[in-house]
Amino acid sequence: MTSGSADFGAGSGDGTRAVRAGLPEPVKNEPTLPGPVFAAHFHLPGDPTGPYTYGRDENPTWTLLERAIGELEAPGQDGVETLAFPSGMAAISAVLFSQLRAGDIVVLPDDGYQVLPLVREQLTAYGIEVRTAPTGGDAQLEVLDGAKLLWIETPSNPGLDVCDVRRLAEAARARGALVAVDNTLATPLGQRPLELGADFSVASGTKMLTGHGDILLGYVTARDASLMAPVRRWRKIVGAIPGPMEAWLAHRSLATLQLRADRQSANALTIAEALRGRPEVTGLRYPGLPDDPSYKIASQQMRRFGCVVSFTLPTRARADRFLDALLLVDDATSFGGVRSTAERRGRWGGDAVAEGFIRFSAGAEDPEDLVADVLRALDESAD
């Protein structure tokens, strides 16, 4: 979907944009947000012209959602194109496998999402050289020479390291490399990768973007139509399309994104501050803490610091007891939902974390209740 950003008037804030993004022009007696269009085919007499021909290619419900996401990722920018996918991994795969060929070099973070090692194996099997480096300290710069594509994940999941997107994007551009940023944890209300110099902003909409833990979704946004054409072709070839109901639910959920992001980010900071004084807690990370190693860079490129806090308890057993003792926080994977969740991340494998490492996702509960629950669970889980 190619679209200029909607004009909501000068000085439009995040809340105004979130509740109005992607809405069609008002039509008397029609809904402000039309319901999902369930169609495999459309009336198509004569030559196949017009936007909607077959359900694998385009759908009116996707169109509105893609327009909305583009308006959030690059407000006020013309020519922004967004493509929706049925999951974040579908979106990630679409960029990687549409842009890279045998003999190319790609740079990935070695501390990113736990499925990236599987992606690395597949890329290598296709004859693509994969280099990795940590997110922190802009370490990917050291292995960038000769690369076709730099993949950035900032803040990283689950360790919450942050890299300087502007610096990395400028270095990549000087070397002729493309830059894709996984913006899942930050959301467009936390940072806008395209404004920081990235070619692609990619995310899982399953997380905070939609925020209710009830749909899987992904998307890719870029300004350059020539870069998006192969991504669109990849989506068509593999059939990685979202269902219209999921797309409609996602668009509906965007209206509360600013409200949720503000509350959840504030709750995450409150939880992080409460954990600072606990002797059993080590490795506490939250980019919004002024003494966090990532704070300086994060505060320069992020407008909100996200809902995820990470920390480590002394042992696996202590972490499991802590999770069992929580009453308001669900032991569940993923993050970004209005209901707080936490998990011992090491149970999955694939992440270089200690056995007692906890990834905590702050929801929209009252902060006093959350803090009380977390501190009580720490006390009850003590040896």
Automatic annotation (TrEMBL):
The keyword Lyase applies. It comes from the Bacteria. Pfam families: Cys_Met_Meta_PP (PF01053). GO terms for molecular function: cystathionine gamma-lyase activity; pyridoxal phosphate binding. One of its GO terms (biological process) is cysteine biosynthetic process via cystathionine. The modification N6-(pyridoxal phosphate)lysine is found at K207. PANTHER family: CYSTATHIONINE GAMMA-LYASE-RELATED (PTHR11808:SF85), TRANS-SULFURATION ENZYME FAMILY MEMBER (PTHR11808). This is Cystathionine gamma-lyase. It comes from Streptomyces sp. R21.
